[in-house]
Design brief:
two-stranded antiparallel ribbon; rod-shaped; 131 residues
Length: 131
């Protein structure tokens, strides 16, 4: 809006270009922060899976020290775990033997909000997370 006050022109308000630039900046910022937020939430959810596979590795190492080989039988460890205490990783893991029982890979998969997250660990303690 243009007003003539005392022989001077004054402009009040914003132009359409200024408004569009402001809206564009807000849109870009919200898009990037939303994506970053979701990634951080997925990492936080995966932390529960990492704790679970770490505990499974400990059980496997104890089993190895007693029997001389690892096991792929979840029932050997099921008594040590109450998977109901895990909110997002509450399904039994997949245990796979490697190198004729001298190695193993344990894989847990998330459910609910952690669906699609897979966490695995091997006998060396190498953890891999797939988001």
């Amino acid at each position: 809006m243009v007003r003539l006050i005392g022989g001077r022109r004054t402009v009040r308000g914003f132009t359409m270009v200024e408004l569009m630039v402001s809206v564009s900046i807000v849109a870009v910022l919200s898009a990037t922060t939303t994506t970053m937020y979701r990634q951080h939430v997925r990492k936080a959810l995966a932390a529960e899976g990492m704790a679970l596979v770490g505990a499974i590795r400990t059980c496997e190492r104890i089993y190895y020290s007693e029997h001389g080989h690892y096991t792929a039988n979840w029932d050997e460890f099921a008594a040590n775990f109450d998977l109901k205490n895990f909110k997002f990783f509450n399904k039994p893991p997949t245990l796979t033997l490697t190198r004729a029982g001298q190695g193993f890979v344990a894989v847990v998969e998330g459910s609910d909000r952690a669906a699609g997250i897979r966490v695995s660990i091997d006998e060396q303690g190498d953890i891999q997370v797939i988001y």
